[in-house]
Specification:
Two copies of one chain form a homodimer.
Chain A (H helix, E strand, L loop, with lengths): L5 E7 L1 H4 L7 H11 L3 E8 L3 H11 L4 E6 L10 H8 L4 E3 L1 H13 L6 H4 L3 E3 L3 E3 L8 E6 L2 E6 L3 H19 L6 E8 L3 H13 L5 E8 L2 E8 L4 H18 L5 E2 L4 H11 L4 E5 L5 H7 L8 E7 L2 H8 L3 H7 L4 H15 L3 E7 L14 E8 L2 E8 L4 H21 L15
Parallel strand pairs in A: 1-2, 1-3, 3-8, 13-14, 13-15
Antiparallel strand pairs in A: 4-5, 6-7, 7-8, 9-11, 9-12, 10-11, 15-16, 16-17
Helix pairs in contact in A: 2-7, 3-4, 10-15
């Protein structure tokens, strides 16, 4: 049993190299492998061509390496991974009867019969073990050789994930003695990376060598990842200690830990206090509601809300005063406060969050430029609003505004309805 | 001037190899480079370590190669790309005064002064040309050598995009004689890949050698990408002809072309006919509204709507009969039809789309399993509903449901309110 094992992820598909598809498989695989203690040393995306698959296999198939290939296993003409692997391993074809049965059942459940195209999916290289795919037509293939391990999976994310969860992770765990690498991620929102760094510098400089901190900025949020690279017992105790120190340094600016991001965190606070929330969204157009309902179990606290995109909807449904829209404009403190109150009345929710802003690219003026957004918060304790200035493109402004609104609400809840106090970071965007 | 030029994209960052960040830069770069006629032959993600950056540079820096590096240029300790490049090219440090000025102005505009951490961003390797970053602190660096071209860009997507659009694309166009590769993408929704293939087989088999078709499945949608690989005049005429044939074969199952995806297409139809739309979403939780408002100019036809997550919201706001919810359940034809009618009344929109379903993972029953979703459509011509069965996870079910609802609405509009006719593909999910 080898101690050092290097994982290479290889994504096959021209669609990746012309930028038509964003590679989400690599991130999913890397995260899962990391959890079980395997380290991805490199990820590559290569073309759907025999020569590029072959040259990558020649370079990377070595003792101590694990190659995980995704893509190119569909039933159509442009899918050539399977045949290239068969030739690389000097295999013949074999018909896998179990796969054939599953394919027949799969089609039957969908009211279709097994056509010639999909029947070909039961033909596999002779030397591989089959990982049965019950949610699609492409099997997983395992080539466990003395010159490294090769796993070939379909490129459709759900099917790839299914096969890794049903077979891949268990196989790798049983094959290698693995010590999980420990990570802990602290999420922040609205604080520039360099300001975080200044704030954390002194603590960061005294970190022991086997504990490291990484700054991962994304759309107005910075994630701080603390990693323990040597899994000793002392190391783990130190890691816990440093994690606590970091948490303390961040204080209420830590909006969530690990997989708990802001929407999860907001829902958790609400559920714990038995409160309910509704949203009234103009410029964010349903994105805040969508972020909240993306969390399983959201219905325990999130009631729904209004997408008040058109001003007539703000007036008719939320009871915004048309005079206020004329006088102050739809992007104003007055209007978002009325929206937040209005959606509480309308739904009976305890709290209301509202947004109105200029997402761009059009619609900006000198006084109200693209990226300006007003957020309103209303609850039994009162109603208030804050303006933010985002500096991104349309989708970036929508995403940042959604997170800024959720974070303002979170801070308001935490501070028991006092306006959020600036901590080390002056509160603004 | 070399004819053959191979582009390698190299993303630097441990966050990519532990799966914390999805690599969107690679797709953006690949798409833009493709548009100007450059072909990405491989994409790699490598670790934030000197040794992996160095070994990748040694392997890939060759005459005729263009390397585009992203990431590792932040002001913090874990960002080591710049120093590694300086050493690789045997450079010294130079202070770029223009960068220093921009950094000072950048901080001033944000009410901050230039700290030591960010001042270091004006220190650059001596042999590179600077690409000025006016929206962030990390400059772009160009090393135009006889052993290939190296471009180093920040990993923050907006800044990377800004630098490519301000400098990179123009530089590459002026440096090389490029003939753009032609692609055309046809979007479909709800049709299995193998059924599409059977339908298109005969036509696909007669395609000339320099025209190819690729199937790109994603979350219930399949994109068909037709590519012309040799840019001759005859080739272009043939390409046009084959594109028309494909369009005809797909008929009304083609939900959009190239960057025009379903939300854009639906808005276009609405704007052309002077109609307006509102949404009443339960299981999709604001995602349909969010997809529509993500399109710039959506306000011309999309009025907004209701996220009726809680049943009380369906009753209070949309006028759904509580008796119907008790009798048929919230996930039923009766309830979605009432929701679609209700949101039209409420907003004054001409058309209404509604959804109610079980996104999962909880909440399923034998009669109403996870993945079941009802879609309601209402307009002056009448109201009807359809059930779909999705087989994905929570986020997949939400996304598929949103697209299925928008596509049902699109077909209804196209068919002038006759129930969508099955074309070659039996209509169901």
């Amino acid at each position: 049993m080898k101690k050092s094992t290097a994982v290479y992820l290889v994504s096959i598909g021209d669609e990746l190299l012309i930028g038509q598809v964003i590679n989400t498989n690599a991130a999913w695989l890397a995260a899962r492998l990391n959890e079980i203690g395997l380290q991805v040393v490199e990820q590559r995306s290569i073309a759907d061509s025999k020569s590029s698959i072959e040259s990558t296999l020649k370079e990377l198939m070595q003792e101590g390496h694990i190659l995980i290939l995704t893509g190119g296993l569909g039933p159509t003409k442009d899918d050539i991974t399977k045949n290239t692997l068969r030739e690389f391993f000097n295999d013949s074809w074999r018909t896998d009867e179990q796969v054939l049965e599953i394919l027949q059942a799969f089609m039957q459940a969908r009211g279709r019969s097994l056509d010639e195209v999909n029947r070909g999916q039961a033909e596999l290289p002779s030397s591989c073990s089959t990982w049965l795919n019950r949610i699609g037509t492409a099997s997983g293939m395992l080539f466990d050789t003395k010159n490294g391990i090769l796993i070939s999976l379909p490129g459709v994310p759900r099917e790839m994930e299914y096969l890794m969860e049903s077979y891949g992770l268990d196989f790798l765990k049983s094959k290698f003695q693995l010590a999980p690498i420990q990570h802990m991620t602290f999420h922040t929102e609205g604080i520039p990376e360099s300001q975080l760094m200044v704030h954390l510098q002194e603590w960061e400089n005294q970190l022991p060598e086997h504990i490291s901190l990484a700054y991962l900025p994304k759309a107005g949020r910075v994630r701080l990842r603390l990693s323990l690279t040597s899994p000793s017992k002392i190391g783990q105790e130190e890691f816990q200690l440093e994690a606590e120190k970091l948490q303390q340094l961040l204080g209420s600016e830590c909006i969530g830990l690990n997989h708990q991001e802001l929407p999860e965190q907001v829902l958790k606070h609400l559920i714990e206090s038995g409160a309910t929330l509704a949203t009234a969204e103009s410029c964010t157009g349903g994105n805040i509601a969508s972020l909240l309902t993306g969390v399983s179990g959201a219905s325990a606290a999130f009631m729904g809300g209004v997408v008040a995109y058109d001003n007539s909807v703000k007036i008719r449904m939320l009871g915004v005063n048309p005079g206020d829209i004329n006088k102050y404009g739809a992007v104003s403190s007055q209007v978002v406060e009325a929206m937040a109150k209005g959606v509480r009345n309308l739904t009976g929710a305890i709290y209301g969050i509202s947004t109105s802003g200029i997402a761009g690219p059009g619609g900006g003026t000198p006084e109200k430029p693209v990226g300006l957004i007003w957020v309103g918060i209303s609850g039994p304790e009162g109603t208030y609003s804050r303006a933010f200035k985002m500096a991104s493109d349309r989708s970036g402004n929508i995403e940042r505004s959604s997170f800024a609104a959720l974070n303002l609400f979170r801070k308001t809840l935490l501070n028991q309805w006092k306006l959020p106090e600036p901590t080390f970071w002056a509160f603004s965007h």
